[in-house]
Amino acid sequence: MFRSFFFLAISFALYYGCGPSISEHLDKRTNSQYSSTHGIEVFFNTSRAVNPGTQVACSNSYFLNFGNMGTQSGSCLVNVPADREIGSLPFGLGNRDKSFQFLEHRVAIQGKTKEEQEKLWWKRIEEDPFEEVIVFVHGFNVNFEEAILRAAQLKYDLKFPGKVALYTWPAGGDGSMLGTFFLKNTYEKNLVSARSSRESFKNFLKRMASTNKKIHLLVHSMGHQVVLNSVSELSKEWGNKPFLKELVLNAPDYDTGEFILILDSLLKSSERITLYCSPGDSALFASAQIHQTGRLGACSKFPGVDVVNVNPIDASLLSLGHGYYSSRPILTDLYQLFLGLGAEKRLFIRKSYGNENYILRN
Asked: Residue 220: which of 137, 324, 288, 283 has the closest Cα?
């Protein structure tokens, strides 16, 4: 533990220089300690269709897995347990120190119109004293509740003091045993939903950029089908001026050839792009078979992009597989990345001379 802290402190010194600025920066970053069980409020914007007959709004029965609609914003208060394995989402009633639980459902405000509620939602984002915000976009086969819990886990485990704004698009299965067996059908439906959500996400990101927050955009898996084209279009519309602080691509299920076509505008959209990839990702291998094209998350070098091969840690986390982005090694690296440290100065990273720039050591 001391050794890790020592090297982290050295990294900060190299990046920020010596003096009180190091301590001040860390104090500001760690003012929310999240060392015990804690209630986390997750702000969300969604294009999911709703079931208005359901009373509990922060639930899968209200926000559905299929069907796009006009966007809606809200927040959910989630109990995040301290006594759990990093990356897991144990859920249920009982011991709050061991289980995630939904505590409050904060979607509609009685007596307010939808427009008034949207204004209040954005006001809370804008008035947050911390200057940074994480925008998280989940991947394939993730229902509403899982998306909320994952966003809460990321905020807690990253000890992030600012707001985490989840954009959740219509993803997930039909819940039937038959649907489990025919996962390809679910994949195809989710893919249509993802691409149909681009305009909605683009409007959401445009509004988020107007808050003047430093935006860390964190994307997983099929979520790149929602995000990358939208970011590329915004970059062109705004004269290729950067509006993102960090663009972090995790196991992207996205065509490599299409990525090359929009790479120039993506590079101009953000101060840095980091791509976490794994040539051993079985989910991306299956996707490549479906599309008959290479997937971005399988590792290739691209000019201007920090490509980090996580295969060594991915192979040791068989229970996480395609979801390695929520694991301890990635969270450790993300923490340093959001501090602004360059890849070569971060813990447990070594240079590579293969199909990537860096390798994350196990």
From this structure: 137
